[in-house]
């Protein structure tokens, strides 16, 4: 146990702030971000928009000035909409980056604080541990067995050891990582003055990962562009052949192309991924890589750590094994008791401040270790005496592969070794046992007796830690741990998290396998897994030892049935991920320690812990759990499914609407009808229906049975499960119905302006009905609760108001060449725009009943 130091190094907040003003932030400056003006101008970076503007200006010069101005205004309004979307996305992604910014533990005003590494300044003293990334250049002041990975700077992948006593071996550099040990580090240079700063430009060339979905949509977009252009050209040429005005036809063709080419498709994917990411953050999952959101929805296995993720990580010692029995500590005031206390408390890294009376506030450190100190806390004086009279001279820190920890303490001029760790590991190293104050040989019989007690304690869900010691033949290496004297075992309970059971159930309903991976004993793991319903029989567990005896093929075969992996080391995790992946699973895997990083990288979704995770694991992960909670993983998977569904929704909407628009014009020209819409009207439809309603679909809440379906296949394309057919059928019907309304108008002898107004209203209204249909692939409009998506209600209302405005405000009527529609004309509009949605909904309603 370590007592808090009386003289704490470091700066005061005031001094740090002063220095920060002088020296600037501890940041590597990257290339400049695009300014808002650049983002706005980039909205015009579209070939068809330039052709449209060119054609408009020409037609303006040739006399149609009002039309030309209107078109230009529409183009600008569209650009503003695009800008707002893109700017918001940039902002929210930027905010996420800041949240994911590295932090460090620094001494300020005499206490240890966690701050954003950017606020670190020269003279600060930070605490660095295995797994931390060094936040600035500086020197190690204190610490033992420190090993740093400097491959980022040197390319050498071997760890470099640091020695605080030798000047030339004290330096540490920003961006390199602590592999082993713990130390105090003082900052000497920051930001662009660091070695890393000097090579910062190289880092700028690292590409951001593109979402595969976005890439696929971009290439689809290119095909659609060509297709649209061909159709628009045909419409234009047929019109010209038929003797229509050439400029008018050209403008019409270009307007149609601008309206129908789904240029926003790929962009909306980014918007909806970004919005989804901020929703996930509200549920405590911080997504570090945008494409991960897509994969999340396909997750078929969640491999989760036990301690802290499925359990509360609040440990309390419940049972102690000493002198051959489970005992009550009060009655064991023997040497055995004091030796157990010494081994568990001195071989312990938690900090304790004896001046603070409230033990929970006074004690800081790993819950496994604090629980042990608490156990002996009743004997404060004895505890104090041990801690104050002994000094740690050497240690081999705990690591999750060895599962034990050892220290050499100097007490009254004599050196003594204390060991604590997983009971089987400790007992392997013991040759003697302390019983009723006597050291006896640890015979085979005795070993069996101890083992059976440990088995029994573990089956009661207790996490067991054994204590051992020796005071002779001390070598400063792992040999130190040979020939130890076994003392006893403390068993702690770590209750499951209340919400974990429900989350496990949700996983199962959603066709996802929840799997527990733990360093703990098989029985402990099994007891907790059963209580959480992760598994129900004893065949579903294997241990690290079992894994070692299996080949990769054997593991691959067996892994599907396994729900609990116990007593595993981090390198087993990598094999587990690979085995699941070879069976075509999409694997999410959690981890916190440095050694977990390779497995996290290998997993389809690597998840690191926000609270207990190390920097290296966080950087390797695609998602950080801010609350270390298993239930959060399940929520994130759900959110991943929702986002994917929503992307399908707006793709369905946008493409069928655009198809409807193109077909209306195309069919009219094939049937040698007059143009059913003017260029301005086409652009208006695009403005009123494409933008806001599509974005609103992107934030649609989850379908109620989204977590009752099997995960989708990762290889499944976005258009799978009948989406193409839906788009083609529905798009064609929108086109046909719109054209029919035009023909009905002509049949009743209405003039061309009225017929076009009728067509315009029908086209807009069909799309606004259709947007509600797109909210669910399985349910009819009647079953979807309208007010669960107020954005959509708002967007649709806004589009209707815009339509009403251009129909009924005289000034706008002039500009858009419309006439006010009468009630009976509205009947035609509503009939042709609503009929398909109505029939389709009745069909779906009957089908799902
Ligand atoms: P997970 O977090 O993956 O569920 P875990 O945290 O329980 O697993 P480890 O921390 O590797 O796994 O612990 C494995 C075993 O090592 C424990 O069962 C316990 O016996 C022992 N152990 C844990 N912490 C310490 C420690 N600080 N000192 C000594 N032994 C420890």
Automatic annotation (TrEMBL):
UniProt xrefs under SUPFAM superfamilies: Calcium ATPase, transduction domain A, Calcium ATPase, transmembrane domain M, HAD-like, Metal cation-transporting ATPase, ATP-binding domain N
Keywords: ATP-binding, Calcium, Calcium transport, Ion transport, Magnesium, Membrane, Nucleotide-binding, Translocase, Transmembrane, Transmembrane helix, Transport
Signal peptide (residue range): none
NCBIfam families for this protein: ATPase-IIB_Ca, ATPase_P-type
Family matches, as Pfam families: Cation_ATPase (PF13246), Cation_ATPase_C (PF00689), Cation_ATPase_N (PF00690), E1-E2_ATPase (PF00122)
A single GO molecular function term of this UniProt record: ATP hydrolysis activity
Record family assignment: Belongs to the cation transport ATPase (P-type) (TC 3.A.3) family. Type IIA subfamily.
Descriptive protein name: P-type Ca(2+) transporter
Origin superkingdom: Bacteria
Protein's cellular compartments: Membrane
Coarse class of the protein's main subcellular location: membrane
Native source species: Clostridium paraputrificum
InterPro entries recorded: ATPase_P-typ_cation-transptr_C (IPR006068), ATPase_P-typ_cation-transptr_N (IPR004014), ATPase_P-typ_cyto_dom_N (IPR023299), ATPase_P-typ_P_site (IPR018303), ATPase_P-typ_TM_dom_sf (IPR023298), ATPase_P-typ_transduc_dom_A_sf (IPR008250), ATPase_P-type_domA (IPR059000), HAD-like_sf (IPR036412)
Ranges of residues in domain Cation-transporting P-type ATPase N-terminal: 3-64
Gene Ontology CC annotations of this record: membrane
């Amino acid at each position: 146990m370590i007592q808090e130091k009386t003289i704490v190094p470091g700066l005061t907040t005031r001094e740090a702030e002063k220095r920060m003003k002088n020296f600037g932030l501890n940041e590597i400056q990257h290339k400049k971000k695009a300014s808002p003006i650049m983002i706005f101008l980039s909205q015009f970076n579209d070939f068809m928009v330039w052709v449209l503007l060119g054609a408009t200006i020409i037609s303006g010069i040739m006399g149609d000035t009002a039309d030309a101005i209107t078109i230009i205004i529409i183009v600008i309004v569209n650009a503003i909409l695009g800008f707002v979307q893109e700017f918001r996305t940039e902002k929210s992604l930027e905010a996420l980056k800041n949240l994911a910014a590295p932090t460090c533990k620094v001494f300020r005003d005499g206490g240890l604080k966690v701050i954003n590494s950017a606020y670190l300044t020269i003279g600060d003293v930070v605490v660095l541990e295995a797994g931390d990334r060094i936040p600035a250049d500086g020197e190690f002041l204190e610490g033992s067995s420190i090993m740093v990975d400097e491959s980022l700077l040197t390319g050498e992948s071997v760890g470099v050891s640091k020695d605080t006593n030798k000047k030339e071996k004290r330096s540490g550099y920003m961006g390199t990582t602590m592999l082993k040990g713990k130390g105090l580090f003082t900052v000497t240079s920051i930001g662009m003055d660091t070695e890393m700063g000097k090579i910062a430009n190289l880092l700028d060339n690292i590409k951001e990962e593109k979402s595969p979905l976005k890439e696929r949509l971009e290439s689809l977009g290119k095909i659609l562009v060509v297709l649209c252009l061909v159709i628009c050209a045909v419409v234009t040429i047929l019109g010209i052949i038929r003797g229509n005005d050439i400029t008018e036809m050209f403008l019409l063709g270009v307007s149609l192309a601008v309206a129908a080419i789904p240029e926003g498709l790929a962009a909306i994917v980014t918007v909806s991924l970004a919005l989804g990411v901020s929703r996930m953050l509200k549920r405590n999952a911080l997504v570090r890589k945008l494409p991960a959101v897509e994969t999340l929805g396909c997750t078929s296995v969640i491999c989760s750590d036990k301690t802290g993720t499925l359990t509360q990580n609040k440990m309390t010692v419940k049972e102690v094994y000493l002198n051959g029995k489970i005992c009550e500590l009060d009655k064991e005031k023997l040497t055995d008791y004091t030796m157990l206390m010494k081994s568990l408390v001195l071989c312990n890294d938690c900090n304790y401040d004896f001046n603070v009376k409230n033990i929970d506030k006074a004690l800081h450190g790993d819950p496994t270790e604090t629980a042990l100190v608490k156990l002996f806390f009743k004997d404060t004086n004895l505890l104090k005496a041990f801690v104050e009279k002994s000094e740690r001279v050497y240690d081999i820190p705990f690591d999750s592969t060895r599962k034990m920890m050892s220290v050499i303490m100097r007490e009254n001029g004599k050196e003594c070794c204390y060991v604590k760790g997983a009971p089987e590991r400790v007992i392997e190293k013991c040759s003697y046992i302390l019983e009723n104050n006597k050291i006896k040989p640890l015979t085979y019989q005795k070993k069996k007796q101890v083992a059976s007690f440990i088995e029994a304690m573990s089956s009661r869900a207790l996490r067991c830690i054994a204590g051992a010691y020796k005071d002779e033949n001390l070598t400063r290496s792992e040999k130190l741990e040979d020939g130890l004297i076994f003392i006893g075992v403390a068993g702690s309970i770590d209750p499951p998290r209340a919400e974990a059971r429900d989350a496990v159930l949700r996983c199962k309903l959603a066709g996802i396998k929840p799997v527990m991976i733990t360093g703990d004993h098989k029985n402990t793991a099994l007891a907790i897994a059963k209580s959480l319903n992760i598994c129900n029989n004893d065949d579903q567990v294997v241990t690290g030892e079992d894994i070692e005896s299996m080949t990769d093929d054997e593991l691959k075969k067996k892994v599907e049935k396994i729900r609990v992996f116990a007593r595993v080391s981090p390198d087993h995790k990598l094999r587990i991920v690979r085995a699941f992946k070879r069976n075509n699973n999409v694997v999410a895997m959690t981890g916190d320690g440095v050694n977990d990083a390779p497995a996290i990288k290998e997993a389809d979704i690597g998840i690191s812990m926000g609270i207990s995770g190390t920097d290296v694991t966080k950087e390797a992960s695609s998602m950080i759990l801010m609350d270390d909670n298993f239930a959060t993983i399940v929520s994130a998977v759900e959110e991943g499914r929702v986002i994917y569904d929503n992307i399908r929704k707006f793709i369905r909407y946008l493409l069928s609407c655009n198809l409807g628009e193109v077909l209306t014009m195309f069919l009219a020209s094939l049937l040698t009808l007059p143009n059913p819409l003017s260029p301005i009207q086409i652009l208006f439809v695009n403005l009123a229906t494409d933008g806001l309603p599509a974005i609103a679909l992107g934030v649609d809440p989850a379908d109620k049975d989204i977590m009752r379906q099997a995960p989708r296949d990762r290889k499944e394309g976005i258009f799978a499960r009948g989406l193409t057919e839906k788009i083609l059928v529905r798009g064609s019907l929108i086109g046909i119905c719109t054209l029919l309304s035009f023909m009905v108008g002509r049949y009743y002898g209405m003039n061309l302006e009225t017929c076009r107004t009728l067509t315009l209203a029908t086209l807009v209204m069909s799309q606004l009905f259709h947007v509600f249909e797109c909210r669910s692939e399985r349910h009819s409009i009647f079953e979807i609760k309208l007010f669960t998506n107020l954005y959509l209600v708002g967007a649709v209302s806004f589009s209707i108001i815009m339509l009403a405005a251009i129909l009924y405000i005289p000034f706008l009527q002039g500009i858009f060449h419309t006439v006010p529609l009468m009630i009976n004309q509205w009947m035609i509009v509503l009939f042709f725009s609503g009929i398909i949605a109505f029939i389709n909904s009745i069909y779906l309603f009957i089908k799902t009943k």
